[in-house]
Design brief:
alpha+beta; Endonuclease - Pi-scei, Chain A, domain 1; 4 domains; nine-stranded mixed sheet; elongated
């Protein structure tokens, strides 16, 4: 009866007799008993009962299997879970669980597929609509059971752990998670770097520990900027190397010895100040916090104070007390005579909010190199110490905030600094307190100190104090925050250390859910809210940045309201937990598919973020994941699209178009995939090359006109590098930057619509039917 029902034939006595005869199972007495007990009118109920009992038998068998594999075979728990979930899914979907399929079953299934294709006529779309007409022409849509890989070059952005401070072009420090598009960062050449886009997500995070500098946390794809520390072959001392963290950790110890982290000094424009920077440094170190008085015994300092008082038409007064340090004050020197309050040094301290609030005002920190060096010299001559043996200067402060400002000051001048807290004690009176020590190393002779014992000699070492060895240590999978910037893409951390495709599948997702079908989206990099923001930008044609900040007109708010209501009814299911193994994906996707049969596509963003249990290496892990995804796609009869990254080899070639060999971490991705596609945007490379030529010309003192035109829309190639059941080639698309949207090259902004041939040709009478491969 089940076979007759599947073949769309009548279920009556004659057809049953014919079917039983063909199978060799005909028994007239048994058939009559069945027909008598179960009239034809009850066939549907009878079939339902057969299926119900069959399912119960399958469940009973599964219970026995569970006991066997857990107790007798003692299989690992993940293998048991996968087996149980797979068998249970097969039972709920009435799928076969036999090891082999008979030719009869295969033939019937083939006929059903041929009938489906015939009903479509001569349509070029046989699988799931990709949302792009040009791509449909090449692939006939994504087939059920296909594993589709979409790969693109790694973004040239920089991503750091939450809380990492970055130097802005204004001289302020800002946490990486608070940086916005359009803001200016400080570049390694003291010119601005504009933030073009933001990146948020989860990835393996690593600590970069500097021997002489701060430790900072970055993601696995972060690009370290290193300098060659010695000559060797074609490599010269000082050569800059930008290398991804994932590549650096694989390098030999010799390589790591040859390449160091580095820092640079920063050039700020000069600002007018009311107080001489050297005096401010002296007062911050040895001055009385409530007035202008400074305590000192050094004749060089007294001579400076006399000269400074004369320059500003004031007088230096002194006060001597037994067993105490002399006190010097720059004041008007007498009373009873009209006095210009504007020249009062104490008033200037008050105007800068310095009295009873010792700190370095921003305009002194962000000033010319000369003014900053004089400020640092004043701090050293008052509170500092020079150790000639080790060629190091040291300043100790009770105020942590002031100590950190002093470190920033020295860092910005290009010195190598360390910052440490310690307990200071005066045993004679039993006093102790916490103090903060700033140590400064480098070309200390540049600091214009006045006290003879604190004047530094030139360094006898050939080592570059701005270079430091680094160690990269794995931390954990965690959130990262980053951005893409213009120029040479190098910016500075707080201590002046130099540091260096979801859109397409979201467009595909949008087209699928528009048709009332469902999509399961595993987002390992981006929160669900950011995915939805991009979908809304694409749907409304409102620029993504405007949506991010809520800067919308009344008309745009109205448009957004309509689209959000529509989006709320669509079948998009997002898992943004940020962690996934192949077992995790199998389990969740099977459950979701059984609850929502309308799901026709699953997306993994992205493959390299998935974890595995294999301890033999990352390539083995990726191999297991890609094979598992292919098996899952066949089991659920839906295409699974997995995003992947390319390795950095593509960056070193003249022809930047990706190839299959550029797939990152494992050749098994290419082997398991049915379709492999690469996103290629030529303008990205053209812009970078033009910027590099411009910067080279400027470094040589030449004029250069940057001829690159930054267009709102970019020509994009979707390169089909592999297609198991069809041709390879290139699909032309256009990338609309403001909306992070891809459209067909010849369709522009027009809505996409699947168009079939005008005529549905009846092929039932044709002997030679040219069917596509299935």
């Amino acid at each position: 009866m089940e076979e007759l029902s599947r073949e769309s034939k009548p279920i009556d006595e004659e057809f049953l007799k014919s079917k039983l005869n063909s199978n060799g199972n005909y028994d007239e007495v048994a058939l009559l008993d069945i027909m008598a007990a179960n009239p034809i009118s009850n066939t549907d109920a009878y079939l339902g009962e057969i299926k119900s009992r069959s399912s119960k038998r399958a469940l009973a068998t599964l219970a026995t299997t569970i006991k066997k594999v857990t107790v007798e075979d003692d299989l690992p728990v993940e293998e048991v879970m996968n087996l149980v979930e797979k068998k249970l899914y097969e039972i709920t979907q009435n799928a076969t669980s036999e090891d082999f399929r008979e030719s009869k079953e295969i033939t019937l299934a083939m006929l059903e597929e041929m009938n489906r294709l015939k009903a479509l006529g001569n349509s070029k779309l046989l699988g799931i609509d990709t949302g792009f007409r040009n791509l449909n022409d090449k692939t006939q849509g994504f087939g059920k059971g296909d594993l589709v890989i979409i790969a693109a070059r790694p973004a040239m952005g920089k991503c750091c752990g939450k809380g990492t401070k970055v130097l802005m072009y204004s001289g302020e420090l800002k946490k990486v998670e608070n940086i916005q598009v359009g803001e200016l960062l400080m570049g390694d050449d003291s010119t601005p770097r504009k933030v073009l886009s933001l990146a948020r997500g989860r990835e393996e995070m690593y600590w970069v520990r500097q021997n002489k500098g701060i430790d900072y946390r970055v993601n696995k794809s972060h690009i370290l900027s290193l300098k060659r520390s010695r000559n060797g072959g074609k490599h010269k001392h000082g050569d800059v190397l930008n290398i991804e963290v994932s590549d650096y950790i694989k390098k030999s110890n010799k390589f790591k010895t040859n390449y160091k982290g580095y820092k640079v000094g920063v050039i700020f424009r000069e600002q007018q100040v009311e107080i001489e920077p050297y005096f401010l440094g002296l007062w911050l170190g040895d001055g009385t916090c409530s007035n202008v008085a400074i305590a000192t015994q050094d004749k060089e300092i007294v001579a400076y104070l006399e000269a400074y008082a004369s320059r500003i038409d004031l007088q230096l007064s002194s006060r001597f007390q037994e067993d105490k340090c002399p006190i010097y004050s720059i004041t008007k020197g007498y009373t009873g005579v009209a006095f210009d309050e504007d020249i009062s040094l104490q008033k200037k301290l008050r105007d800068e909010n310095l009295l009873n609030n010792k700190h370095i005002p921003k305009k002194y920190l962000i000033n010319s190199r000369k003014n900053r060096l004089e400020l640092l010299a004043g701090l050293i001559d008052s509170d500092g110490y020079y150790d000639d043996r080790f060629h190091v200067m040291e300043i100790t402060q009770k105020s942590e905030d002031l100590a950190k400002q002093i470190k920033f000051l020295a860092d910005s001048l290009g010195f190598r600094c360390s910052f440490k807290s310690k307990i200071a004690r005066i045993k004679s009176i039993g006093y102790e307190c916490e103090v903060y020590r700033v140590r400064i190393v480098g070309n200390l002779e540049e600091i214009p100190t006045k006290i003879a014992r604190k004047k530094a000699r030139p360094s006898a070492s050939n080592r570059n104090h701005q270079h430091t060895g680094i160690t990269v240590e794995y931390d954990k999978v965690d959130d990262y925050y980053g951005f893409e910037i213009d120029g040479n893409r190098l910016f500075l951390l707080e201590d002046m250390t130099v540091t260096h495709n979801t859109s397409l599948v979201l467009n595909m997702t949008q087209k699928v859910i528009e048709r009332g079908e469902g999509v399961a989206f595993f987002s390992l990099e981006m929160p669900a809210e950011q995915l939805m923001l991009r979908l809304l930008s694409t749907e409304t044609s409102i620029p993504l940045q405007k949506l991010r900040v809520g800067d919308l007109t009344d008309e745009e708010w109205s448009q957004l309201s309509v689209v959000t209501d529509r989006m709320a009814t669509r079948k998009l299911f997002v898992d943004d937990g940020g962690y996934a193994t192949i077992h995790h994906v199998r389990s969740k996707l099977r459950k979701l598919k059984s609850q929502h049969p309308e799901i026709t596509m699953a997306i993994i963003d992205y493959l390299q973020l998935m974890s595995g249990d294999n301890k033999e290496g990352r390539q083995q892990v990726i191999s297991e994941i890609s094979r598992g995804l292919k098996q899952l796609a066949r089991e659920l009869e839906i295409p699974i699209i997995a995003l992947s990254q390319l390795n950095r080899g593509v960056e070193s070639r003249d022809n930047k178009r990706p190839m299959l060999s550029d797939l990152r971490e494992s050749g098994s991705i290419e082997q398991d995939a049915d379709i492999v596609m690469f996103v290629y945007r030529d303008d990205v490379y053209r812009e970078a090359a033009e910027k590099e030529r411009e910067m080279k010309a400027k470094s040589e003192g030449k004029e250069y006109e940057n001829k690159f035109e930054n267009k709102p829309e970019e020509d994009t190639e979707l390169i089909i590098g592999k297609q198991r059941n069809g041709p390879t080639g290139t699909v032309k698309l256009v990338f609309q930057k403001r909306f992070t949207r891809f459209v067909d090259a010849h369709l522009g902004d027009g809505a996409f619509e699947v168009v079939y041939e005008d005529e549905n040709v009846d092929t039932s009478t044709q002997a030679n039917i040219n069917l596509p491969m299935i």
